[in-house]
Amino acid sequence: FHSHLLGSAMSFCPVPHTSRDQGWLVTGALLGASAALYARRLYAARSRGQTAKRHGGPTLASADPALYPYLLEKGTRPSEPLQELFAAVEREPRARMMGSPDEAHFLGWLVELMGAKRVLEVGVFRGSTTLALASALPQEGEVVALELNGDFCSTGRRYWDKAGVGGKIDLRLGPASESMRLLLAEGGGGSFDLVFIDANKADYDDYYEQALALLRRGGVVAVDNTLWGGRVLEAPAATADTAAIQAINDKLASDPRVSIVMLGIADGVTLCRKR
């Protein structure tokens, strides 16, 4: 399954018995232990001109390119529609914007672990992560999916319906910040279990603040691209997007409203549990 892809390997370790909410945080801490080393190695590789083609480059899989296909084969269980959607996106322009298959699987697994029923996705692109999230929800569950460009979503919609989860997905087109404000105005504050942020980097701080307002206590905000291909180590930042990622990382590291763990999956994802 997609043996040509490179991405991050998730290494699970046994954790002591904890409450449900604590358990995934402990597991996440173990998963994220290699994140800083990943960023330094990848940034050094980029400086030498060694850049990866897909999904931000390898983490543990850098030791052997065969590890990532092995991870997908043994560590994920994508449905047939999801596999077909991954393949379809690879044939489309800007395919590298797609979330990596292991990240999509992890987020679906997190939905199941949390017993989530309502999920907000900020940034849909072609809908592969949307499909993974919706498939993990119970029948009465809902993904509110926010996307600026409706043309991107046309690919995913075919496979959402094929997987039988199209009815769980409420796709809302337009600027994500405005859509989030509308959700709050509709009385959606505190109603979401999980918010996944993967959209315009310059607006990450606004997305995060509104996500906290929309999230229930004990819910999770998952912020994507927090390792940013290693460019988080730039000083000073070469682009506005890099500066925005550095700023949100600094904020999350010290925000008393949440407990966090940064994972070295794909291009880095930080999980923030609302206190």
- Please give the count of helices: 10
Which blocks of ≥5 consecutive residues have pLDDT under 50?
A: 1-18, 20-58
Instruction: Quote the beta fraction.
Output: 15-25%
- Molecular shape: globular
> What is the succession of H and E elements?
HHHHHEHEHEHEHEHEE
Rounded mean pLDDT is 82
Give the strand order of the largest sheet, numbering strands 1, 2, ... along the chain.
3-2-1-4-5-7-6
Separation of termini?
39 Å
Q: Which structural class is indicated by helix and strand composition?
A: alpha/beta
Radius of gyration from the alpha-carbon trace, in angstroms: 17 Å
Helix content: 40-55%
The total of beta strands comes to 7
**Largest beta-sheet characterization:** 7 strands, mixed
Task: Briefly say what this structure is.
The chain is α/β, with parallel strands linked by helices and 275 residues long.
Kindly describe this structure.
It contains ten helices and seven strands. With 275 residues, it is of the alpha/beta class. Strands 3-2-1-4-5-7-6 form a seven-stranded mixed beta sheet, with helices on both faces. The N and C termini lie far apart (39 Å). 44% of the residues are buried. The N terminus is likely disordered.
